Request: fold
Amino acid sequence: MKVKGLNIILLLLALLNFTKAGAANEIRVEGIFKGQNIFVTNPFAASGVGFCIYEITVNGTVTMDELNRSGFEIDLTQYHLAQGDPVVVVIKHKDGCTPKVLNPEVLKPQSTYNVVSMKVDKTGRLTFSTKEEKGSLPFVVEQFKWKKWIAVAQVNGKGTPTLNNYSVNVPLHSGINKLRLKQVDCTKKPRYSNEITYNNLLPEVTFKPGNNGQTAGPITFSRSTDYEIYDFYGKRMTKGKAASVDVSSFPKGTYFINYDCKSESFEKIDKK
Reply:
């Protein structure tokens, strides 16, 4: 009885180890269907007998593709997928060898959007509509100020080719505001929309001690504003949004300040 019990335990341990090994020997590729198939290289098994891959599933269904080849195509068209449908491909393979998916990017979302309309109101509410999206990617809202484009908001794309409507708050500065959308897909190349402009009639923000002025203590703005402060060597000392900034701990010297839509400077001095 003891021997029989031991054999059962050993059998259970073997099954457990097989399950762990099977789970580890999987390549999982996920994304959306864009009308393209997947190509795979399939090396020989480590034993030298047969090929590495022994099973492939697409959305849980075992494929009928011929696996006993060094390279083959996983035909996704046979699953009657529509553009934008989710796809999960699981490639199961033996120990000691690793197949390779040659074009996993065909399942990655692609930046293909077209902007139908885009506008911003005086409250800073940006609304825009798009169509022809292929896969969900975030839209980054960029604003041009301080002589550079700055990301000021983000909204997740819906990823469908039909008309999609979006709305997000953006911080408006005084004067002419320039805004645009940016999206980055698997190519890592940013794709931009056309710019829109909005003339904000609020008066410009001012600050004390004024441009090139001297201060040992805080800087005070005429109203709350976004700001950045850099030292003489370009190191950013602080950033934020407020009506005043305490610079008393800064070493003395010249500093450059970006605020509202302007870039100026001030001199930090020691307390007397």
